[in-house]
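Annotated sample (chain length 204).
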Amino acid sequence: MAEITAELVKQLRELTGAGVMECRNALREANGDLAEAQVVLRKRGIASAAKKATRATKQGLVGSYIHPGAQLGVLVEVNCESDFVARTEEFRQLVHDIAMQVAAADPQYIRREDVPAEVLDKEREIQRARALAEGKPEKVVDRIVEGRLSKFFEEVCLYDQPFIKDNTLTVGQLIATKIAKLGENITVSRFARFKVGDRAGAQG
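Output written by the structure step:
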């Protein structure tokens, strides 16, 4: 097994914000591989987030982002369990990052389950017709459609979108890492995106 040095632990802490023992254990599991240790910590963070997902989130912040030029702006409400966490710099930065994400990636919904059934059915029909028109064998069409629906979710659902600052993470995974680090459930409740000349505006 590779030696787990203090320098390696320090590097992993700087990259992830995880605790000393968490980093040391992740590095042991990854046999000293820094990139693999980050994956280990992400998986643990997601598992930890899943355990906290049912806890009520009644505190939080409303954050905003105005794009340079003031032609595009976003309001977003992100909730947590306590006012203490809501006041932390880590949480404030998360809220700001999510507002920037909404501005840049223009999601239409927060989560997959927020997509109306009729929208999903229509998209499924479109992708099925497209696959058949491309001459795909009938027996594999359903699998192709499901794969394309995953791509659809990545485009329209905030939690499924690649995070604009690190596209190896989805926004949902980013939130999961913050849940693990801050020790509280965190949810995005709603957002509104305003663009000059666009009367519709996306809302979650």
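Annotation: Residues 6-53 form a domain with the Helicase, Ruva Protein; domain 3 fold (CATH 1.10.8.10).
Annotation: The chain has eight helices and five strands.
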